[in-house]
Design goal:
- It contains 5 helices and 6 strands, in the order ααββαββββαα.
- By secondary structure, the protein is α+β, with helices and mostly antiparallel strands.
- The protein has one domain: Nuclear Transport Factor 2, Chain: A.
- Strands 2-1-6-5-4-3 form a 6-stranded mixed β-sheet.
- It is globular.
- The termini are far apart.
Length: 139
Amino acid sequence: MSEGPQERLRSFLEALVAGQVAAMEAQLTDDVVWNLAPSAGAERIEGRERMLEFLCSGLERCYRLPGRIEPLMSVGSDREAMCLARLSFETVNGDRYENLYSFAARFRGDRICEAWELLDTASWARQVGDELAARFGLA
């Protein structure tokens, strides 16, 4: 039995918190679009290479990998999936970080072609500290 969108999204998120670039890359279309939380004030990211660069550089600047993901709820259809999850990491400053995230993904075939990441950016900024938050324009 092949994996459905819910399982594929969860697999991508597990690779994300572990920093497993090759595993993430294999699950994305070349023209993937990543939509960031509106409160982050950032533009959407287009293209697999740009998306992986953004995600990996952000993880490396903020956290010590691997992190942990605890899926709390997921729903899906034949081409879409959503996952509410608690992500936790140790920050590069040695502090504990934990936040709720909502991820949604649309699939083309078995790969993610569009995704949304929503989180409490104010909580993120408080937990990672002013210096890191300022790098992302959130301090």
